[in-house]
Write a structure and sequence with these properties.
The complex is a heterodimer.
Chain A lengths: L2 E4 L4 E4 L4 E3 L1 E4 L6 E6 L5 E7 L5 E4 L2 E4 L9 E3 L8 E11 L2 E6 L3 E6 L1
Parallel strand pairs in A: 2-12
Antiparallel strand pairs in A: 1-4, 3-9, 5-6, 5-10, 7-8, 8-9, 10-11, 10-12
Chain B lengths: L3 E4 L2 E4 L5 E7 L5 E8 L3 E10 L2 E4 L7 E6 L2 E6 L8 E8 L10 E2 L3 E5 L1
Classes of the chains: A mainly beta, B mainly beta.
């Protein structure tokens, strides 16, 4: 089946540093790709998405580009803030029984120090 | 008010006990899902339901059962809890609409510990 592999954490950065969290996927078709974020004590929230090759998803200063040739969807942010501390999940959607199902990576814990 | 709520938020129980986790939503969505989250494994799908008459197994349904009592309510049961079911459980909902993907909205989670 389809799968997602994320950069292992935890990742610790200083405020205003550049962030990259790597994500690669394996899929038989052409899935949509997502980044979800989980703040402490909360459920997951959709951060951004891309539905086809070369699409760029962006939100809250985060960006990720759907790279079909490298099967990747790396998350980047130019200048992180303490409030970005969270667990980040890369995911893809695969179709099962006519409906979409999410397949998640293992998550990457990010801590930003002031 | 939260759109997707889960009760209880935390539960400690003993091996062999029956446990029910409840999920309610006010988003009016047709589709509901139960996931478990384990450290280093991401989220894995346990069961999902497209409407009150439709229940489907996910990738790790063994040891679990579900009930869709109404459009807004989807319960997860552990008939006889075991320690390796200790995890964080999430309920999620999505709309039944056109398009290739409908965003899933997650509840805050239930932390279950089985001793």
């Amino acid at each position: 089946g389809d799968s997602v592999t994320q950069m292992e954490g935890p990742v610790t950065l200083s405020e205003e540093a550049f962030l990259t969290i790597n994500c690669t996927y394996t899929a038989t078709g052409y899935p949509s790709l997502f980044w979800y974020v989980q703040y402490p004590g909360e459920g997951l929230q959709l951060l951004l998405k891309a539905t086809k090759a070369d699409d760029k998803g962006s939100n809250k200063g985060f960006e990720a580009t759907y790279r079909k040739e490298t099967t990747s969807f790396h998350l980047e942010k130019g200048s992180v803030q303490v409030s970005d501390s969270a667990v980040y999940f890369c995911a893809l959607s695969e179709k099962i029984q006519g409906a979409q199902k999410l397949v998640f990576g293992q998550g990457t814990r990010l801590t930003i120090n002031p | 008010d939260a759109d997707v709520t889960q009760t209880p938020r935390n539960r400690i129980t003993k091996t062999g006990k029956r446990i029910m986790l409840e999920c309610s939503q006010t988003k009016g969505h047709d589709r509901m899902y139960w996931y478990r989250q384990d450290p280093g494994l991401g989220l894995r799908l346990i069961y999902y339901s497209f409407d009150v008459k439709d229940i489907n197994k996910g990738e790790i349904s063994d040891g679990y059962s579900v009930s869709r009592q109404a459009q807004a309510k989807f319960s997860l049961s552990l008939e006889s809890a075991i320690p390796n079911q200790t995890a964080l459980y999430f309920c999620a909902t999505s709309d039944l609409g056109a398009g290739s993907y409908n965003e899933q909205f997650f509840g805050p989670g239930t932390r279950l510990t089985v001793l």
